[in-house]
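User: structure tokens for this one?
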Amino acid sequence: MNPDVLHPRLPSPAQDVVDERFERRGVRLVLKRDDLIHPELVGNKWRKLAPNLGAAEGRTVVTFGGAYSNHLRATAAAGRLLGLPSIGVVRGQELSGRPLNPSLARCAADGMRLHFVDRSTYRRKTEPETLAGILRALGTEDAYVVPEGGSNSLAVRGCRALGEELRGHADVVALPCGTGGTLAGLAAGLAPDQRALGIPVLRGGFLGAEIQALQVTAFGARRGDWSLDERFHFGGYARTTPELVAFAADFGQRHGVPVEHLYVAKALYGLVTLAEEGAFPRGTTVAAVITGAPLQPGAEPRR
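Assistant:
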């Protein structure tokens, strides 16, 4: 099954924006609008999922995520659009008698079967024995398994095209990072005189090793010039603050771009901070990858 039947908009457009917070430092800001690739398979979700959906060859797709996972939402939408059965293994216990949050409700409406597992089991989901037990419980031993966040070798190689599209268009390419697969591929696609900057949205300090491992698996070695700035997670996964929400609204109003809170806002906030710190030499062009679209109305993150 070829996901290209969904007619993605590739390459995604690059949009120059005028923002005095960058201009007064002599820095040019470009937005790489990956959020415009497809209305339902947005941004890095398309780049990571498309090669995996092709490899699934019509089998049930099983994947993993938290209660506010953009990856689960994109996989569910892809299943509906392509006629693929999908199952989302969700971290945490389902609350009996409580309605699903809007993100998971959207997944269910798109036909995704939701299977909740306790956090201990979820942490061990990549162990062969644990994964086999989950698949047995689902009755889908022959399913095609996509890891949390969609980050595997196919996804990383799919994201290399993002870097290739940005060759010659920026000195620094910045993006938010969850599992690190997009950065792993992007950095491999950039030219030697470009560098990638990842803004992790989770706490922990573990992501650098995971990105390197993804690159080794996908390409045989570390690729590209990349680094992480781990100061802008705003409390961790699915968390925001009133300051970040206000920043996102202001940025969106300034530039006419809807700003997703859990990932994109954190990266943009980080870039504004870095510009004000003088981290970018005058004359630098910074491209910010808009990796996703805002949550559905009502799917507010935790604060």
